[in-house]
Design brief:
The complex is a heterodimer of chains A (201) and B (291). With 201 residues, chain A is mostly helical. Chain A contains 10 helices and no strands. The longest helix of chain B has 64 residues. Classes of the chains: A mainly alpha (201), B mainly alpha (291).
């Protein structure tokens, strides 16, 4: 979905309240939001619940907020981030979440469905230090990367995910985490250095 | 070592900036041949993070979540309607219970307040013996009750002035026949005057003024009363000296007769004496106030 189509869907939903437009937006963003939440909280069940909450809030408040394609992305990610923070607060005392690694391993055993295939591909490309297409850069496994992400402070983890996984621009990330563009760049830089240190161990 | 690390940071920053511009990794690395290996690690991390994009939920999770969103919205809507219904029912139950008596109470309260205020306003010019005079006296009593003790003198002074004006009006009318009311008014004048003096609210000049006015009023009463009510009571047909005597004997206008004969003896004498005696009286007054 390009920006024009997203704009059209937002305006049409606000005008008509027709769920068809909402569903287009939902299908475009669902995987992104789910992934963002899952990478942050490492709990598949909670990630599903939070994603439902995010889209419920979008459904309820989209008509009340002035949005366009440029502001919609930061807005929806911000909702997700706020719900993640709420989740952290609730679970701070007794965090018994299943780690993402375990979750992926469990899913690997499933043979059916798209998710299982993707998971397996993620696990299988874990050949550390492997060189793809003769390139110089080493290949890090997903497990290593996820473990590294887990060890990062929340803000650094969020910036890394938003920048390198979700591929948002710095301005949007700044809007999501309430920081300036320069701060976001600085956080990203520190996060990359830290991640490199963690993966080098 | 440290210097080398700093250089690496600068180089890394440049490298990351290049990566931000979607330049190919190989091309980026070729820009920094000396740091090829180190930067290769960073490039590998960034590339690995990009691979995490492949994480996704299965199709049934997506569908199930969409249904949950609609369900949640429907529940919220129903709950909202229920809350609205409950609120309406609550108000509907309460409305006749408190609204009607409240409106009646407010109406009566406002009516009584306006009536009372209007009555008090109307009673300001009333004379003894009239119906509204009672209201006037009652409002004065309330005023005195509500006023702190140290300011009561002012109220009494106003009351004295009011009584004397009433007496003036009665004298000017000439056809006032209510002797009981007159007696009471005379007694009131003395009583209020006494209260003013007790609170030391009358300075020498004011006291003299008031005494003069009181005396004039009393004389006017006696004269007028004698003219209008021949033989009606003990005052009738007697001159002023006789009146004083009868007052002391306990019949008719006792209040101010006693006052004349008792407290204001000096002033009574002054009326009949020369101006020199008046000066002596004034000196006597000064002694009385300790001035």
């Amino acid at each position: 979905m390009d920006d024009r189509a997203l704009d059209y869907c937002i305006i049409s939903f606000k005008k008509t309240g027709d769920n068809v437009y909402y569903e287009k937006i939902y299908r475009f963003f669902f995987q992104k939001i789910y992934r963002f939440v899952l990478l942050n909280i490492s709990n598949s069940q909670a990630a599903e619940d939070i994603t439902v909450d995010v889209f419920y809030k979008v459904y309820r408040y989209m008509v009340k907020v002035n949005l366009n394609s440029a502001s919609f992305k930061p807005w929806i990610y911000k909702i997700a981030r706020n719900l993640i923070i709420d989740y952290y607060r609730k679970e701070a005392k007794h965090r018994q979440s299943q780690s993402l690694e375990k979750y992926l391993e469990a899913k690997q055993s499933e043979d059916s469905g798209n998710f299982g295939e993707i998971d397996r591909s993620l696990i299988e490309n874990s050949s550390a230090e492997a060189r793809l297409n003769g390139s110089a850069e080493p290949e890090f496994s997903n497990q290593d990367l996820l473990a590294g992400l887990e060890s990062l402070p929340d803000i650094q983890k969020q910036v890394i995910i938003l920048r390198f996984v979700e591929e948002l621009d710095y301005k949007s990330i700044g809007m999501i985490i309430n920081k300036s563009e320069i701060s976001v760049r600085a956080i990203k830089f520190r996060a990359i250095l830290r991640l490199k240190e963690l993966l080098a161990r | 070592m440290n210097k080398n690390r700093n250089i690496n940071k600068k180089v890394l920053n440049k490298f990351l900036n290049l990566m931000d511009k979607d330049v190919d990794i190989k091309a980026c690395l070729s820009e920094f041949p000396g740091n090829h290996e180190t930067l290769g690690h960073y490039a590998g991390i960034i590339k690995g993070l990009g691979n995490l994009k492949k994480i996704s939920a299965s199709g049934d999770v997506e569908e199930k979540s969409l249904k949950d969103v609609y369900l949640q919205a429907r529940i919220e809507n129903v709950e909202g309607q229920k809350k609205g219904f409950k609120r309406d029912m609550f108000l509907a139950r309460l409305r006749p219970a408190f609204l009607k008596p409240l409106i009646i109470f407010l109406g009566v309260f406002i009516f009584i307040s306006f009536s009372f205020a209007g009555t008090i306003y109307a009673s300001t010019d009333s004379l003894p013996g009239e119906m509204l005079y009672t209201v006037k006296r009652a409002s004065e009593s309330i005023q005195v009750t509500l006023t702190p003790y140290r300011y009561e003198g002012n109220i009494y002074l106003k009351m004295l002035d009011s009584r004397l004006r009433e007496a003036d009006v009665i004298l000017s009318l000439g056809d006032f026949t209510d002797t009981v009311a007159l007696e009471k008014l005379a007694a009131d004048i003395d009583d209020v005057y006494e209260r003013c003096r007790n609170r030391n609210y009358l300075d020498l000049n004011k006291d003299m003024q008031m005494q003069t006015r009181i005396r004039a009023v009393k004389e006017g009463f006696k004269k007028r009363y004698g003219m209008n009510k021949n033989g009606a009571n003990d005052f009738s047909g007697q001159d002023m000296e006789d009146t004083e005597d009868t007052a002391n004997s306990g019949t008719g206008m006792q209040g101010f007769e006693q006052d004349d004969s008792g407290k204001n003896n000096n002033s009574e004498e002054n009326d009949n004496n020369s101006p020199d005696d008046g000066e002596q009286n004034q000196k006597g007054k000064q002694n009385q106030y300790g001035k």
